[in-house]
Amino acid sequence: MPDDTELVDYYDYFTEEELNEFIPAFLEEGVIHERLSILPVAKSTEVMFINKTAFDRFAKETGAKMEDLKTWEGLFAMAEQYAAWTDNQTPDIPDDGKNFFVHDYHFNYFQVGVESLGENFFKGENLAFGPEFQTVWEPYAKAALSGGVWLRSGYATEPLRTGDSIVSVASSASVLYYSDEVTYADNTSEKVEIVSMPCPVFARGETMVMQRGAGICTVKSTPEKEKACITFLKWLTEAQKNVEFVTSLGYMPVKQEAFDVYLPEAIEKLSDPMYVSLYQAFLKTQENYTFYTAPKLDSYLDLETKFEELIRQTLSVKRLEWQEHPEDMDKLVSETLEDFKAAYTQ
Question: Quick one: pLDDT band at residue 4, thresholds 50, 70, 90?
């Protein structure tokens, strides 16, 4: 907006006691120039969705453990293993291994990963590209070059629906679009079990995860209209009512009491196992993770869009080189990083 003072400052309408009921990180995201301009009403985050049916088949033959998916290092090592395992199932067809993992937001993987390791991802209105960026890059790039990571565009729900991938990290709200049926390229289909886990973290990093979700702004108006808006928002964010609202949408409530008291009760009443698993992952996430808030940069959307496009493109091109010279993996990982940074900073 041309002037953020056109929006109501919720600090004027909510008492300190009322605001203390909210999850602090959810409120902090809505503070702009020391004014609470956005009130959280339904939050989401990033979680890991797993086709457990397909994973169990893979695990039975390889000994892979779901426990190893708790860290990015474990997940990407498993992605390399899965690409090789699926490739070996058709020895007469070279390089037809399948992707294990798809991330909806590569930019968020790097952003949260670098920040969780104690380093700034941004420098002013640009990216910092500090030493920890390489830490985050290496396991990801190795898995991508070896074919374990989905690099095409589109949402993570799609490759899970077609069996082209079996693990994803995506917005928790995307549970609405996941299906318990996979339809393969030969037009056969299979019922599967989709389970959720909290987002992976780096072994030596903070347990940090992206904060997402919806808030509401109120435009300044007459005192009567403003009061009506605030009355509605207080009703919608009341702990029990908020849980009823968000659990029908795949979102998280915004108050601590909602997590502690009403969400566990609501989970017991859910009939869809996929939603039960998601909300159990929510409870673990809220208890154990720090919610990361992206900075309010004018350049943010441009940085994200350019990053998403270039990283997929750069890795896809280099993967062709890896297929010719798989023994050069470490060299190619390093070269691809330099190629990406050079293209990104042009």
Answer: confident
Please state the φ and ψ torsions of residue 46, each to the nearest 5 degrees.
Answer: -105, 130
The pLDDT value recorded for residue 151 is 96
Q: Specify the amino acid at residue 5.
A: T
Joined together, the tokens standing for residue 332 give: 């190619």
- Other Cβ atoms less than 10 A from the Cβ of 291: the count is 21
Query: Please, is 270 exposed, middle or buried when counting C-beta atoms within 10 Å of its C-beta (0-12, 13-18, 19+)?
Result: middle
pLDDT confidence of residue 250:
84
Model pTM? Answer: 0.94
With CA atoms as reference, report the closest residue to 69 among 84, 60, 79: 79
The answer for residues whose C-beta is within 8 angstroms of residue 214's C-beta and 6 or more apart is 40, 41, 42, 43, 44, 251
pLDDT tens sequence across 45-88: 999 999 999 999 999 999 999 999 999 999 999 999 999 999 99
How far from 130 is each of 8, 19, 33, 110, CA to CA, in Å?
A: 39, 37, 28, 12
pLDDT category of residue 248 using cuts at 50, 70 and 90 = confident
CA–CA separation, 212 and 284 (whole Å): 17
Backbone region of residue 199 per phi and psi (left: phi > 0; alpha: psi in -120 to 50; beta: other values): beta
pLDDT tens for residues 147-170?
999 999 888 999 999 999 999 999
Q: Do the Cβ atoms of 135 and 203 come closer than 8 Å?
A: no
- Tell me whether residue 278 is exposed, middle or buried, using C-beta atoms within 10 angstroms of its C-beta: 0 to 12, 13 to 18, 19 or more: buried
DSSP count for the chain of H helices, then E strands: 14, 12
CB atoms within 10 A of CB 13: 18
Q: For residue 154, what are the contacts with CB-CB under 8 A and spacing of at least 6? A: none
- Terminal CA-to-CA distance of the chain, rounded, Å? 30
CA 147, chain centre distance (Å): 21
Measured N-to-C along each axis, helices 106-116 and 131-145 cross at an angle, to the nearest 10 degrees, of 140
